[in-house]
Amino acid sequence: MKSFLALCSILFLSCSNDFGIEKSPINTSQKATIKTFGGAKNDVFNAIKKTADGGYIIAGYTQSNNADVGIKTNTSFDFWVQKYNAQNSLEWQKTFGGSNDDRAADIIQTSDGNFAVLGYTTSSDVDVSANAGAQDFWLIKISATGNLLWEKTYGFSGADYGTKLLETSAGGFILTGVLDVTASGGQGNAKSNSVKHAGGDYWVIKTDNAGTLKWSKYFGGSFTDTPLGVVETADNHYLIAGSSDSNDFNITNNKGSYDYWVTKVSNSGILVWEKSFGGSEIDEARAITTTNDGDFIIAGDTRSSDKDVTTNNGAADVWAVKISTEGNLIWQKTYGGTSFDAARAISKTEDNGFLIAGSSRSLDNNFENKGQNDALILKIDANGNLQSQQTFGGSEIDFLYGITQLNNNTIIAVGESSSSDQDISENKGFTDALKIILE
Description:
Blueprint: H1 2-5, E1 32-37, E2 43-50, E3 56-62, E4 78-84, E5 90-96, E6 102-109, E7 115-121, E8 136-142, E9 148-154, E10 161-167, E11 173-180, E12 200-207, E13 213-219, E14 225-232, E15 238-244, E16 259-265, E17 271-277, E18 283-290, E19 296-302, E20 317-323, E21 329-335, E22 341-348, E23 354-360, E24 374-380, E25 386-392, E26 398-405, E27 411-417, E28 432-438
Antiparallel strand pairs: 1-28, 2-3, 3-4, 4-5, 6-7, 7-8, 8-9, 10-11, 11-12, 12-13, 14-15, 15-16, 16-17, 18-19, 19-20, 20-21, 22-23, 23-24, 24-25, 26-27, 27-28
């Protein structure tokens, strides 16, 4: 479960120039409404997107079948989708899955007003028509009112899982995720028995509007390569950001341990270029977004303080990197204190800035911590300068995985919480889904 696998949280400091930090973060006084959702088991919100009607859509997964999740009949994990209007009123919620473990990672609104959800499934019954092995990518299309329109699985005999998706400007979908190379029957990189593969490859799938496979490509090296963000470029290709600790096959310039690894892939699935960013320690990219000037910002966390990373405040910092369309580093900024601070999501704001969500364990550099990991939201401007920061939590682990700004400037962030004190008034089970509204 993410709470217990997460090594760190997120905190931040603003930068006074392109390659430094300013140790004077700003706390905001926005009104915060914090609510948990779930039942007696484990419940998580993984992604949120604003919708064309001024509201928003949330996707995650639930194991519960009571309390807020009375719509389920069993206690296996299922996709969980909630739709809200612009007034934060729940319009509908639905679960999708089979009798085993099914977890949603990302959701988008499609051009026809419906929704597509990507994650993984270990089921082969009920809503899931087929499964090739332990885990498959699972893509579902649902209507504007939450009815299942169609579903598709993609995978081999191992633990393959989807991470991000987008609808392309030409129609159809791009799916990213991880290919379990060892169990793939000869797919991916490092295929020979003489080169043992320690992890997975970036797996990129292009489908048509009905989810029918058009092409499937793998990128990576002989270690662990994990894609966690994808955007379409102005020339209708795709930029994929994630992390890699490989230094062979497609990876030509590993800086040390895990790096931010960014690939540009053509609309026919050809690798155009690849770049690594980081230092000698662990650097993991978690999200990417476009900028209004045609470039890209990648958010994640870093433990390095050398090479591409000019400053580290201790343990892990949030690390934001701006790159050009050719993959050249324009600026990089770190935000954090002396403990573990990590980013998990980034989204653009109406004023050309960016929101970053994640968590923080730090107690210095103007960070407050109420115990374990606290949920964290930071706002930066177009140049990466810190404009505001807030942490929320209780005495247990609280984490954010998605964030968006609505048309009325309300900020909604989602994740998970194990707390039931301080900022978190209620916990219904083990882990509850968490939603924070800033107005």
